[in-house]
Amino acid sequence: MEKPSPKIIYENLNDLEKVDVVTSARYRQLAQAVLADPTVNETLRQNIAERLQQANHLLAIKSVDGDESY
């Protein structure tokens, strides 16, 4: 599977609440890889970091039902 561009990864972070848990985890993993890649434009990495932080915050405050975990 080909890795999407950093811009696509950035856009995918908008869809974390719309996709299944596995896809959401994959999007987060790809975002982390971009953050660790010094060849990616610094501004784009900062934008991804901010969007990922917001998404992680929302996940942390999300109500968890029954046997779900986060």
From TrEMBL:
Q: Which domain of life is it from?
A: Bacteria
Q: What is this protein called?
A: Uncharacterized protein
Organism lineage reads as: Bacteria, Bacillati, Cyanobacteriota, Cyanophyceae, Nodosilineales
